[in-house]
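Hi R.,

Here's the chain you asked about this morning:
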Amino acid sequence: MKRVVVLGATGSIGTSSLDIGRSQGDRVHIVGVQAGANEEKIQKIADEFDCPYTLTKRDGTDGIKRLIDETKPDIVINGIAGSAGLVPSQIVIDSGIDLALANKETIVMAGNLMFDWAKKSGCRILPVDSEHSAIFTLINQCGKENIDSIVITASGGPFRTWSIEKLATATLADALRHPTWNMGPKITVDSATLGNKGLEVIEAKRLFDINVNKIQVIIHPQSIIHSLVRTKDGIVYGQFSEPDMKHPILQAIDWPDVLKTYMKPFDLTDTYDGKRELTFERPRYHEFPMLALAIQTAKNDQAYPIAYNAANEVAVDAFINGKINFGKIAEVVDKTLQLDWAFETKSLDDVLKADKKARAQARLNLE
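And the predicted structure, written out as tokens:
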């Protein structure tokens, strides 16, 4: 049985993780949970799972270290949203505990440091993003030495078919109507701008140590194929499943074993009319500039990914709070990236300083 701690237990990843705990209690034991400021909700979760160890945001990052020391988990699921998940990831890795990582900002901001720390502590970083989980599995099945390139799929979000003129009128309510995934507001807005896919390109480059020119993004509205790899002989292999985050979470918990799942087996014809259509499109980079900015950011590397992420978080927060319009998000990020971010970050302190500088600049760019 795996002892599991869930960080961000009240978010979308946390909710899916807890559902696994309910359904797989004979092999998944939830021993500790953390959430933001909702103490009543976290207490209900603790009572349900007979879990004496809980944590809220007011306990700070020191509390996460105590939570890990007290629960002695086999694996920690980090479902904390945004850059707030960075330091918790570092604490888990330093503790030598396997990290099931749904927080892409950890790798975008400090991937080089995290991999070094994981090597020293002997833990594993297992991706939980559906796309990176798929790529991770496919690379292991095909052999890293045989991989030529990777293909990351994107649903296209709620504005996939919108004209550039119509995008100028997009409201928050429009942006939050994601067609296939049920996620928190920040990541849902990121999906609408394709900024989330941009972050995934940066994350994939660092996670799989692959040249960004070997990473392709395609729009796949049905969200059935979660990503693909192309081997050196030109053949493409993909991972298919329903759009449900319980699949990649369970894969990370069970890794390296592949165990029988409690979830319904995937069937391509299991629909109301007995057929299923899968379609693919090229991204519209002009209408969704956040993706092109991310690809250039990945090429520039160094501290540019930190600036991209920080500026995006500032801009998306401003959009959610009605301070800027939808199109202004990419403009804020672009202006922030025009500063010189060509410097190495050799410590977590360096990363946090760069993040702080980028946020300050992004706030100026909101005007």
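The mean pLDDT is 94.

Let me know if you need anything else.
M.
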